[in-house]
Amino acid sequence: MLSSTFVRTKAGRSKPVRLTAVIAAALFLAGCPSRAPQTPPANIQDEASASSDYYLQQLQQSSDDNKADWQLLAIRALLREGKLPQAGAQLKQLPKNLNGAQQAESQLLTAELQVANKSYVSARSTLSHLDSGSLSANQRVRYYQAQISANEGKASLPLIRAYIAQEPLLTGKAHQTNLDQTWQALLQLTPQDMNSLVIDANENVLQGWLDLLRVYQDNKQDPDLLKAGIKDWQNRYPQNPAAKTLPARLNQVLNFTQASTSKIALLLPLNGQAKVFADAIQQGFEAAKNGGAVPAPAPQQPTNNPDQTAPASQPAAVSADPNANGAVSTSAPPADQAAVTAAQPATQPGAPITPPQAANAQIKVYDTTSQPLAALLTQAQQDGATLVVGPLLKENVDQLAGSTTTLNVLALNQPETPKDSPNICYFALSPEDEARDAARHIWDQQQRQPLLLAPRGALGDRVARAFNQEWQKLGGQTVLRQDIGSAGELRQMVNSGGIRMTGTPISAAPAPQSVTIAGLTIPAPPSDVPAAADGSVDAVYIVATQSQLTLIKPMIDMATNSRGKPAMYASSRSYQAGAGPDFRLEMEGLQFSDIPLLAGANPQLLQQASSRFRSDYSLVRLYAMGMDAWTLANHFAEMRQLPGFQVSGTTGLLTASPSCVINRKLPWLQYRQGRVVPVS
Q: Is pTM, for the whole model, over 0.70?
């Protein structure tokens, strides 16, 4: 019989307890070592949604078998959090004896770190040595995204192939984004790119995308033909991912509806010093409506000095800088017809064609100096207006952002930061618009180290800011600015060493200002910040009057030798078509831009307009703006809804940004052997 013992209770009773059971339990517990709960093994091929701190903690606590996996997950989290130095340090600390899956993940992380550090060439090389077939679906998404990023957004066949390969791996919003970005990359292909593409016979999806692009390019100027072309393409390529879910921009085409222009409200200042500018716009608007005919000359309020014409948004008597807040480029002096017609770019058409359906449109003019803008918009809507053209003055345009009107509005100016509204477009002949076009032109001519010579003050600030923003968008680096003063100040510079090819970076603090002592203005000394390490400047963009340019260009010629001479460009501010042969010879090689009408695209229309406005080219420009405003009004829906739609106008080749700011591409001309010729 087994022995037993007795345990006395508080009540004095004894209970027998089996000693064997107690001993057995004690022995069992003693034989089981204490062990903390284990974290499930890491999966490096799956999502890594936790923080880097969590993965690093797991790395410290894990056994040797799991350490590399936790370290790889930590690196991925560090990259996601933007902690690039820590990610790089962890990559270097990875053990050498990684298995196949770990090596593939390490290579992918290396490429992602290189992309994050903008080492795109190295990233492309790393990715080329990685076998995508060994990756999980999640890793392949990252692999193709790294390829996309390593291409720096430049339209190319490898970029488009990466988008196509990534598409089946995505769902939801990411899938739609992929389709939209694929389409955007295709739109950036030039005709030369399209002609040189060589694709494999089995690339059916790519072939479908390229055919869709051809349909779009062939029909984008006709919404009805484009709709039909897209539907036909969907029937021919039913398995293409874009046939099942169109890119958002193409989906807009299928939902496109033409805007009514049966009754147009024209909002202009009919009183005050801006009236002369409003009159020119109104006359151009009505002439375009009537098919481009120029009405008989009528009395006009002349400007005292054509070279200092105040723009519509800033009356001449109010500001010392007449174009400080204007919507229109400063005018050029009068010109004779013979010099104007010397240059006739073949690519620029004449006056816009009046849409036949709009020829009977009713136009009612409203005076923006008589009532607040909100009241005028309400009145126009009550009068049955279907579209508004205007207002012109900048302070009125700024009020549009807070307006609740449902009418379509083509504003004739633009705010500092245009608001993207589905019923508003902005059209302005602004100095900023011209500066942006100049930045694109200079970039296209392969110049990369520009110096901007701009007037001191508000106008120069606006031009410099616009030029610099566009330059940075194109991928450029530092833009230097040097202020220029009056012709008198420039003559002083001739005697004191001329212009130096240096300036202040536009993104830096404001340049030092000149000082005036006893009526004598002493210009501020130029900064000694070079455009590059070697101090070279390869392009100079000059925003100056004609009298200033006659001093600036010779000074630049004297300051540089023939081998290191920068390319020189000027704005329309300095264009004087009536200048004599001596001036044209002095300007040899200089390129300048102006609107097609003044560049010789339609000599007959220019002669009529010049006669009407007594060769005041500031008013001729506004007249051309009025003509283009009519054309844009009749294509409002296309400009607002159809990306890539363009109109050839008298003020430039007109396209719209995503927020419907109308951009103008201007013709560029050049002084060559005493003549003015198109830039080839």
A: no
